[in-house]
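Sequence, please.
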């Protein structure tokens, strides 16, 4: 738990392989109380806010950046703590959050997560708009691509532009209604904002205008490679190697490990990949087997 800006906190540190997400908290210092951006998957991380003097019962609002289970999976548990908590998400992802039967879309079937649907207070329908809590004006921006209803939340305070981006690193996957072209357009929209601080959904906080824009551009590059290997040509070894390098540069070590292991299965004597694998393993990433499952599922899916 860390204060990343006045009255804004990062609640947990996580990685993709852990099946959780980064959760952020804003203390509105008003009767609106505390606002969460996403819920993550671990109620204990949220309960720890009492260590810095907050009571979880004062979490009155929660904005869900998109309808993947790792971003809203414990919403029902938050509701048990404060039955008046209100949840907000984009209309286009709302079924995945409010209903059963969308487990392939909200990723709970891939991530082994069971979930309780919850009712949203508001279905956001516009491309831009504002949710006001106390003096805090949170501007939502529809950024389709990773999912149809992905949203980023922009907060401008003291001349700083802070963005809660959700899954900026998340490659849009067709099986979950992702769309690479829309994702690229959405990222261009974000790059134009000249952000000072990015609070990302799995990678934590990126600070400084230049670093934020490099990070977003690298995510776009990485997503293109990932799209190519998962959905175009899973046998192309150069694509795989480029992808591993980009994931390593972005410090997404669990994904880099997964991709590198896959590449070495295709091409066991690839010396560049072996070298890179050694470098990746130094960071002790958790083992995360996504690639093989996804490729199997995807090629099954396009046969129909
Ligand atoms: Zn996601």
């Amino acid at each position: 738990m860390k204060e990343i800006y006045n009255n804004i906190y990062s609640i947990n540190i996580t990685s993709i392989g852990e099946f959780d997400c980064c959760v952020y908290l804003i203390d509105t210092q008003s009767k609106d109380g505390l606002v969460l951006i996403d819920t993550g998957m671990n109620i204990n991380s949220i309960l720890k806010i009492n260590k810095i003097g907050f009571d979880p019962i004062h979490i009155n609002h929660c904005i869900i950046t998109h309808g993947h289970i790792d971003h809203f999976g414990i919403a029902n548990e938050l509701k048990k703590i404060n039955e008046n908590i209100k949840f907000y998400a984009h209309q286009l992802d709302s079924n995945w959050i409010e209903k059963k039967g969308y487990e392939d879309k909200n990723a709970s079937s891939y991530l082994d997560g069971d979930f309780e649907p919850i009712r949203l207070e508001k279905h956001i329908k516009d491309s831009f708009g504002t949710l006001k809590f106390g003096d805090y004006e949170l501007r939502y921006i529809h950024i389709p691509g990773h999912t149809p209803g992905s949203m980023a939340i922009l907060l401008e305070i003291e001349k700083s532009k802070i963005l809660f981006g959700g899954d900026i690193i998340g490659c849009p996957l067709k099986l979950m209604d992702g769309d690479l072209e829309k994702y690229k357009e959405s990222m261009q929209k974000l790059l134009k904002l000249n952000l000072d601080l990015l609070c990302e959904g799995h990678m934590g906080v990126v600070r400084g205008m230049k670093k934020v824009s490099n990070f977003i551009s690298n995510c776009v590059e990485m997503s293109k490679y990932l799209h190519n290997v998962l959905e175009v040509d899973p046998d192309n070894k150069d694509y795989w190697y480029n992808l591993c390098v980009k994931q390593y540069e972005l410090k997404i070590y669990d994904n880099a490990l997964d991709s590198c292991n896959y590449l070495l299965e295709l091409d066991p004597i690839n010396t560049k990949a072996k070298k890179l694998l050694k470098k990746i393993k130094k960071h002790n990433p958790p083992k995360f087997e996504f690639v093989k499952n996804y490729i199997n599922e995807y090629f099954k899916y396009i046969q129909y």
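The mean pLDDT is 93.
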